[in-house]
Amino acid sequence: MPLLLAALAALGLWLWLRARKRPVPAQWIAIAGALLGPVMAARGMPLLGALMTAGSGLWLQFGPSRGTGGAAPPPSPPDASRRDPDRTEAAALLGISPEADRDTVLDAHRRLIARNHPDAGGTAALAARINAARDVLLKSQPD
Fold first, then answer.
1. At what angle do helices 124-139 and 102-116 cross, to 10 degrees?
2. Could you tell me the residue ranges of all domains in the chain?
3. What is the DSSP string of 27-43?
4. Fold designation for 87-139
5. Is the pTM of this model over 0.70?
6. How confident is the model at residue 133 (pLDDT cuts 50, 70, 90)?
């Protein structure tokens, strides 16, 4: 019994540490419930333990993330119909004038990418559009 409690404590610690980085998938909570249910039944709470074990088992069997292991779906291939923005669209995306100089373009790009980078909570698609806008504006700059 102490070995089981130590394993449950280790599982709980692992889940807590993992939750600090990103949300814990519901499957792991169901697994913890399936492990804790028999312990509760053995400790004198058979009805509560049986309900917890049965509910966790049903969630694992028929839950919304069944078969995916809690992993995100694979990324879709890039859309071939996407085109680079023209100079006016690129400037509007960066919030600057189309005639802006190189330093203004780079400053606007840094400001936007810092807020919209995927590591900072933005989306990869928006970051790609911001980078494409920067490239379009910098390519049209005189050397």
1. 180
2. 2-62, 87-139
3. HHHHHHHHHHHHHHHHT
4. Helix Hairpins (1.10.287)
5. no
6. very high
